[in-house]
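Page 37, continued from 36.
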């Protein structure tokens, strides 16, 4: 048997997307092994989720570092030491430096709670609700140096309902996130896909 592909998950907070990945690995929907979960915040709720799943955790507190470059160099080293092939950002509230992105070129995914390219940046469900769109959703995309702008791997639309608040919309978008993130990770790890410009072309079998 070949060794499962090794992913690293970076978090800052509650870690429900991390949980969806851990669950998908545990029940065999995602052929991967979570090699490490790294948080930039001590005490992030997601760390306990990783521990409960028997996954190694690491806290790299950004406040202990002189610069973004020094912090990211430590991240690269920690992920490399654990032979991580794919980095999955799951509510990691930090901008990654060009050096980090170069070190994992084409091997970083992020989950974002809007139908990109609409509403990049902070609090996308609020932005969508406040703008008055009738459809929002969730997006898994590759990370490049743009803000939430890398090639899109998977999306799921979430209609805005009469009477929604930005919180109730965010809660339904979160359910979509939990469906598409493990699926997208699986598709990327399986390989056979290619990029045509910025368009993600999955393998014929997907
Ligand atoms: C999610 O909405 C994700 O899309 C965004 O940050 C939030 C993280 O939530 N990038 P959680 O920590 O996975 O629960």
């Amino acid at each position: 048997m070949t060794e499962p592909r090794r992913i690293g998950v970076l978090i800052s907070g509650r870690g429900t997307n991390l949980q969806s990945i851990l669950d998908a690995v545990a029940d065999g929907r995602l052929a991967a092994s979570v090699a490490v979960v790294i948080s930039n915040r001590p005490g992030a709720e997601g760390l306990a989720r990783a521990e409960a799943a028997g996954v190694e955790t690491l806290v790299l507190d950004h406040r202990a570092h002189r610069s973004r470059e020094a912090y990211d160099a430590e991240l690269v080293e920690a992920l490399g030491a654990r032979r991580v092939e794919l980095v999955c950002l799951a509510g990691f509230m930090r901008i990654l430096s060009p050096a980090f992105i170069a070190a994992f070129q084409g091997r970083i995914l992020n989950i974002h709670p809007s139908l990109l390219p609409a509403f990049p940046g902070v609090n996308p469900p609020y932005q969508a609700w406040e703008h008055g769109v009738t459809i929002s959703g969730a997006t898994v995309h590759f990370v490049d140096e743009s803000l939430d702008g890398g090639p899109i791997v998977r999306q799921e639309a979430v209609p805005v309902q009469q009477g929604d608040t930005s919180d109730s919309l965010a809660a339904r978008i979160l359910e979509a996130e939990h469906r598409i993130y493990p699926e997208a990770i699986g598709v990327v790890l399986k390989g056979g896909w290619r990029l045509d410009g910025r368009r993600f072309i999955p393998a014929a079998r997907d």
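The radius of gyration is 17 Å. Flag for discussion at group meeting. The pocket of 5-O-phosphono-beta-D-ribofuranosylamine is lined by residues 13-17, 46, 90-91, 111-113, 174, 177 (CB under 6 Å).
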